[in-house]
Automatic annotation (TrEMBL), chain A:
Taxon lineage: Bacteria, Pseudomonadati, Pseudomonadota, Alphaproteobacteria, Hyphomicrobiales
Originating species: Pseudorhizobium tarimense
Function statement: Part of the Tol-Pal system, which plays a role in outer membrane invagination during cell division and is important for maintaining outer membrane integrity.
Family label: Belongs to the TolB family.
Keywords, alphabetical: Cell cycle, Cell division, Periplasm, Signal
Stated name of the protein: Tol-Pal system protein TolB
UniProtKB/TrEMBL annotation, chain B:
Protein function: Part of the Tol-Pal system, which plays a role in outer membrane invagination during cell division and is important for maintaining outer membrane integrity.
Lineage: Bacteria, Pseudomonadati, Pseudomonadota, Alphaproteobacteria, Hyphomicrobiales
UniProt name for this protein: Peptidoglycan-associated lipoprotein
Record's keyword annotation contains Cell cycle: yes
NCBIfam families cross-referenced by the UniProt entry: Pal_lipo (TIGR02802)
Pfam hit, one: OmpA
Gene (name only): pal
Principal place of residence: membrane
Top-rank taxon, per record: Bacteria
Residue runs in coiled coils: none
Gene3D superfamilies: OmpA-like domain
Annotated family: Belongs to the Pal lipoprotein family.
Keyword Cell cycle carried by entry: yes
InterPro entries: Bact_OuterMem_StrucFunc, OMP_bac, OmpA-like, OMPA-like_CS, OmpA-like_sf, Pal, Pal_lipo_C
Amino acid sequence: MMKRTFIRLMIAFAGMAMSFAPAYALVEININKGNVEPLPIAVTDFQSGNELGAQISQVIAADLQRSGLFAPVNKAAFIEKISNPDQQPRFEDWKVINAQALVTGRVTRESDGRLRAEFRLWDTFAGQQMTGQQFFTQPENWRRVAHIIADAIYERVTGEKGYFDTRVVFVSESGPKTARQRQLAIMDQDGFNVRQLTNSNDIVLTPRFSPNRQEITYMSFEGDQPRVYLLQLETGQREVVGNFPGMTFAPRFSPDGQKVIMSLQQEGNSNIYTMDLRSRTTTRLTNTAAIDTSPSYSPDGTRIVFESDRGGRQQLYVMGADGSGQTRISFGDGSYSTPVWSPRGDLIAFTKQSGGKFSIGVMKPDGSGERILTTGFHNEGPTWAPNGRVLMFFRQNAGAGGPQLYSIDLTGYNEQLIKTPAFASDPAWSPLLE
Amino acid sequence: MGRTDTSAMSRMQTLARNPAVVALALTLALAGCANKKNLPNNAGDLGLGGAGAGAATPGSTQDFTVNVGDRIFFDTDSTTIRADAQQTLDRQAQWLSRYPNYAITVEGHADERGTREYNLALGARRAAATKEYLAARGVPANRIRTISYGKEKPVAVCDDISCWSQNRRAVTVLGGAGM
C-alpha cells in the first residue's frame, strides 16, 4: 500500500559559466547567536511555461519563512522582472527593496518527461552568485525538489544542513474523544502530501523513524495485545518486535538502526529493554520497581536518556548504553518526561509538567542549561528536525476537540502550526532523506 | 424456559447465550421490582446503581455493572486502592466468587493530564493493583487478565478535574462466561 518511489535526484553543481568577483560574503546567518534577525530574501517565480514555476518558488519561500531565519520579501515589491535566470540580475533593484539574497530559477520539461529544476542564489550586496544547482525528477515530485532547493539555500546561508526535504510520521486522530479513531500517517514536514499508513480500529501510538531504513516502529493495541511493531513503509509489511510477556511500548531505534529500545510492562512494573533486530536477542537495561520508560539514545549510541518515577515523580535519567551509571539529570520544579536526544548530541528535549501546565523545553545532557521553549495547557512529545535546530510537538488547547502539531525553533520565538487534515499527535521527524 | 438445570450458574450461562430468554427474564424481574417500589432503594450505596438497579438478572453482566459496580477511581498519579474503591472491589470479589465461571479483564486507565508513555505504565499499575486486591480477596489470579489503555480511552470529556477524576479508573470487564 505504501509504494514509495524514491526519486533519483541528480545533483549537479551547475557549472553555469558565470564568474564574478571573489567572495566577501555578506549573506550569512549565524544560528548559534540566539534570537536571529531573519534575513530578507527575494524568491522569484521560477521561469516556466505554466504555474509550476510560481508554485515551486512558493514552497521554497514558505520553507525558508517557517525556519524563522529568513524573511521572504513580498513579491509585490519586486522591481526587476527576471526574464533570463542565467543572466546576472540588476542587484541595485534588489538592494533598494532590501533583499539581501535573491533566488532565481527555471523549471523545464526534459524530452524524457522529467522535470529539470535549476536555481541560483545571489548575494545582492556582494553582487555575486552564492550557489547554483540543478535537479532532475519526475513531475509529481515537484514539491520535493522545491524542498531540496530550500535546503540548499538554508545550508549555503547558515552553514548548517537544512531539514526541509524530510517527512513526519504521526498519529492522525478523528472522531469524538471517547471513541477516537487513530491511524498512522506520514506527510512532508510542511504538512503536505499526507498519506495514511494504517487502516484499522486498533489504537496506534508513538511511531518513530528508523535512522537508515524505510521503516518505522510504533505501538499497536491489535488483538487487545498492546505491543511494539515494525512497519515497512515501502511494502506495508508489519511484524511484532520480540515475544515479550507483557505490554511493550515507547519504542525507538538505536542510532545504527540495529536495535529497538522500549519499555516492557510486567504487572505494575515497567523496565527498559533493547531487542537486537538481527540476532533477536533481548537485553534488560533497567531493573527497578518504578516506571522506567521513554528511552532515547544519544546520537553516538553510547548513552540513553529515559524517564523514571523511581524518585517519586517522573524525572529524566541518563545511563550508559549497557544500563550502567543511571544518573538523574532533571531537578527543576515539576515532573519531566518524553526525553529525546538531539541529533547534534548537544541537547535533550522533554515535556515538563509544572503548575498545571505542560511545557516543551531543552536541557544539556548533564541537566544544566534548562530552557522552556513553550508553555500552555497541554504540550507534549517533542521530536527533533534532523539538524537539531527545530522541534515538532503536539498541543491540545483547553476546550479543543483534539491535538494539533506545532514546530518551534530553539530560540522559542518561532512557533508554527503544521496544518493537518485531522487532529494529529505523536509526531516523529524523519532523518534527512536519501 | 423449559429447562430444569439444578445449577444456578449453568442456567445463567444458558440465559446469557439466548437474548430472547434474557429479555423475558428482565421483564419478569422489572415486574417484580414494580411491586416493591415502596421499599427503600439502596442502589445508591452500591456505586453505579440507579433507578431499577436491582432489576438485573443475578449473575448477569448488568447485575455486575449496576449492582456491584464495575469500576474504581484513583487519585492523581496514584495507584492506591482508596477506601471507597476497596468496598467496590470487595463486592466484586464476592460476586466473582459466586459466579466463578467468569474470566475477567481489568482495564487500567489514566486521565489526560500526563504524557502518553507514562500513562500507559500508570494504567498498567492501576490494573495490577486492582488485580492484586481482587486476588487477595479470593479471586484466582489466573482468572484475571489486565490491560492498560493509558489516557487513550477517556469516558468523561472536559478540561477540568470533574472529568479527569472519572478517567483515572480501573474497570473490571467480565470477559465472558466460562474459562
